[in-house]
Structure formats: C-alpha cells, structure tokens
Amino acid sequence: MRTISTTVYQFDELNDTAKEKAREWYRNGALDYDWWDFTYQDAATIGLKITSFDLDRNRHAKGHLTMSLPDSCKAILKEHGEACETYKTASSYAGELATLTATLNREKEELSEEEYADKADELDDTYQGEIDRLTEEYEQELLEDYSIMLQHEYEWLLADEQVDESIRANEYEFTETGKRA
C-alpha cells in the first residue's frame, strides 16, 4: 500500500488557468437536473404546455395552449410584469381580440333582423376563422417568448459569475491545475 499526498485548493486560491479548468469541470455536470421545470410550470399557469425545446441556434420550443386565447391573455396580464415579453404579447393579442369582437358586434348591429338571419352563420364562421388565426399566431409567439426565456436561463446558469458562486457555495476543492480533488 502506498499513500499519496495531494495539496488541495479552494476555487479562489487557483490561478486564472486553473479556475477556467474548474469552471469547465463544473459546467460538464452542472445541469444534470431538470433546470427548466420552473419555466415549464410558469408557462402552465398561463395556459401554455411546453412539450420540448432546443437550445441550438434556431432556439425553438414546442407546445400548445391549454386555455383559450382570452383566458391565457388574462392570466399573463395578471401574473407577468409589464416589462416581460409575454405581457407585451398578451397585451397585443388581447387588443386584437377586442377589436375583432367589436367589429363583429358592429356588423351584427348594422344588419336588419332579416339580413342577420341570412348572414349570421357566415359572420360567425368568419369570426371563428379569425379567432383561430389569432390563437395560432399567439401560441407561436408565446412559444418564442418562452424559448428566449429558456435560452437566457441556460446562459445565466452557466455564466462565469454563477458557476463561480456555485463552486464556492459547495466548497469544492481542486488540485493546483484546477482538476477536481
């Protein structure tokens, strides 16, 4: 049997090259948990179920709405701050929906009872088609908003400052070259 003695260092005791190696070690295993769960849960509260996402340069999420367009907009406007992109998206679509509804109501009011009876189905079909189009566009914009959030969260978790803080908080020790001891 032989005994080997190794000097170990805290992160702040390492030189810059060794610190970078320690960061690399940390990043290789740092995200071995479902770090996106909070974002998925947030999306669910506003009626968006995210089923998958990629962090490649195309950066896209897949999913679908679980609430109606008006209900989802209301949830976002209530729960998300005005500076949030989802708030801006919901505000825009809530406005478009209100304009569409007002236009339909105005068209119905301008018709006589006989004209309304003849055109009611056509107006309702046109209105529903527009609602469907708005809903599809809204869903895609929300998915894009959440794709950006996921990308930012990923980048933040692996940024030097955050990695350094995590290494320090966990009191990891390293060899002089930055290899995990």
How is the biggest beta sheet arranged?
Answer: 2 strands, antiparallel
Structural class: mainly alpha
Strand/helix succession: EHHEEHHHHE
**Overall 3D form:** rod-shaped
Instruction: Give the strand tally.
Output: 4
Radius of gyration based on Cα positions = 26 Å
Largest sheet, spatial ordering of strands: 1-4
Please indicate the percent range of residues in DSSP E strands (runs of 2 or more): 5-15%
Poorly predicted ranges? none
Please give the share of residues in helix. 55-70%
Chain-averaged pLDDT:
94
Terminal-residue CA separation: 20 Å
Number of helices: 6
How many structural domains? Answer: 2
Write a concise keyword list for the protein shown above.
181 residues, mainly alpha, two-stranded antiparallel sheet, two-stranded antiparallel ribbon, 6 helices, 4 strands, 64% helix, rod-shaped
Explain what you see:
The protein has 181 residues and is mainly α. It has 2 domains: 1-31 and 160-181, no CATH class; 37-157, no CATH class. It is built from 6 helices and 4 strands. It has helices at residues 16-30, 37-45, 69-79, 85-110, 113-157, 160-169, and strands at residues 9-10, 48-53, 61-65, 173-174. The strands form 2 sheets. A two-stranded antiparallel sheet has the order 1-4. The chain has a two-stranded antiparallel ribbon with strand order 2-3. A hairpin with a 7-residue loop joins strand 2 and strand 3 (61-65). Helix 3 (69-79) packs across helix 4 (85-110) and helix 4 (85-110) packs antiparallel against helix 5 (113-157). It is rod-shaped and about 100 Å long.
